[in-house]
Amino acid sequence: MWEGVHVDGRSMVIAARFNGPPGTGNGGYSAGTFASLVDAGIPEVTLVKPPPLDVLLAADEDRVVDPAGAVVATVRAVPPFEVSAPPITLAAATGAARSFAGFTDHPFPTCYVCGPERADGLRVFPGPVDGVVAAPFTAPAEVRPETVWAALDCPGGWSVLSAGRAYVLGRMAAVIADLPAPGSENVLVGALAGTEGRKAAVHTALYSPGGDLLAHARATWIAI
Q1: Residue 203: in which H helix or E strand, if any?
Q2: Distance separating alpha carbons of residues 197 and 13, to the nearest angstrom
Q3: How confident is the model at residue 142 (pLDDT cuts 50, 70, 90)?
Q4: Domain residue spans of the chain
Q5: Given 56, 94, 118, 169, which residue has the most CB atoms within 10 angstroms?
Q6: What average pLDDT does the segment 69-77 reach?
Q7: Domain at 90-223, CATH from 3.90.1170.30, 3.40.50.1820, 3.10.129.10, 3.90.76.10
Q8: Which residues, listed in sequence order, are joined to residue 76 by a DSSP beta bridge?
């Protein structure tokens, strides 16, 4: 059994514990892993199919494929983009998390990031506040870039998710200015930019308790 994500040259694995929907990789964690293929610029990852777990994936400069040769994701560098998820205080985010809709209706309750059934997950529970969703985020003992991508992922989804209407990540770009310190308390914010058909454009940001921007992302979620 894999203990984590292993990158060896152009091979990588998403370990089973980093799941989103059952049996597949959390979109943000997977995208953050695949983002390592971008050497310069801001990485944007498009998930072509659900990332498999505990499977050795092969990668080249701009795509990741499974053992059968099917494309799992494509990767490219994109220009800078604005921060569109505003800062929320830690106290407000803590209060908002008590109203997390996923406590009563969650499409993927074992999700590594926002699943209430995952005591060993990141336990990010975004609730509504001031027109956005926000949650406190305690950085785990080991913080890697893909950890931040994962944390930035689900708050965007919860800005559009509703009862009986599940979405999954389709595309994500992220900028990490600084990694949160292990064990530190931070704030995640998700904001809905707009919807078109089955697509939802969202923005997320990670702030320190003092309101300093640590990372931000934009993403497209797809209704299923």
Answers
A1: strand 199-207
A2: 33
A3: very high
A4: 6-78, 90-223
A5: 169
A6: 97
A7: 3.10.129.10
A8: 44
